[in-house]
Amino acid sequence: MVNKLNPRLQEPLEEQPLDTQGFERPRNLLNAINEDLAPLLDLAQRPVVSANQFTREQLLQLARLAARYETQPQMITRPLTGKILVSAFYEPSTRTRLSFESAWHRLGGDIMSITDPASTGIAKGETLYDVGEMLNHYGDLVVLRDSNEQAVYEMLESLRVPIINGGNGTDEHPTQALADIYALLKWRPAICQPELDPTQHIRIGIIGVPGRMRTVRSLLVLLGLFSDAIAEVVIVSDKEQPFAAGQREELEAAGLTLRITRDLNQSLPDMDVVYINTIAWIGDDYEELGSHYRLEQSSPLKPDAIILHPLARGDELPRELDNTPHNWYFAQARGAVFMRMALLSSIMKTFT
Predict the structure, then answer these.
(1) In the prediction, which pLDDT does 9 show?
(2) Does position 348 have pLDDT exceeding 60, yes or no?
(3) CA 204 to CA 268: how far, in whole Å?
(4) Is the link from the previous residue into 312 a cis peptide, with omega within 30 of 0?
(5) Which domains, from first to last, does the chain contain?
(6) Alpha-carbon distance 192 to 31, whole Å?
């Protein structure tokens, strides 16, 4: 009966065409950045817990390597064969966990997954310090997501293999920010240029709360490395103080020009990039912040503006925008696999 009711089951699915968000964009980025693997050597066997660890040069070379993986998959030599990733996700995740595991598999490695702390010694009171000590013997790299902001630091104390922060409470999500920057650089490779004509500077709108949202917090740190190409970052929030203590001062010291507004539609016509998120993880649950903000086809977006979203989405980003040129959030999620491949290759020092 379902067959007769659902026309999508009556004929084979057609492959979606790859347009400007497919292979042409990463090829353009590949050509825009001169290869210099030296900055990536500093990432070898290092933990990644914060967006503050990265330099502009490292971001550019990671993006270039990601673009090479995205456009030249036949060149991947599976350098992580025999290496084991411990994928420890103590908080729900779809894109981060699966993109890390996809990236590791594409590089030839094997994976051990933990998706429920109740199935580990943590349920008996074991500390993350002790878990880390054991993982030294079981894997070659750990990716940890935990709703406790201190979890990654507690495990870091005992680990002798690299660890990557896959999201720690409301604190940071550095690899999501890497994926966000990769999407921005593919969209506008000119951002890579050290001296960009002021007429080409971009205005970025962020709908969210930087002091409470780990994706926004990490993204803003990385945007500070490209402040010479950003005219303004507009924070759209209904909070009186959307920044954490000292956060705004640090970002402005990095060169970002920041403005706060409550009125989304009034600011949209000037935004080249709209980054929207309404979820912040708190403990074992999440809270919605600014959920009354919503983008629609009728929203006064610039014709060539792009929308980014870390996903998962809710009512703030309806499906009616999926088939518009504004949709870069699916390309953003796709690119996360290649950016994480670049990061993993650099940490394991296996890039070629």
Answers:
(1) 62
(2) yes
(3) 10
(4) yes
(5) 24-173+334-347 (3.40.50.1370), 176-330 (3.40.50.1370)
(6) 11
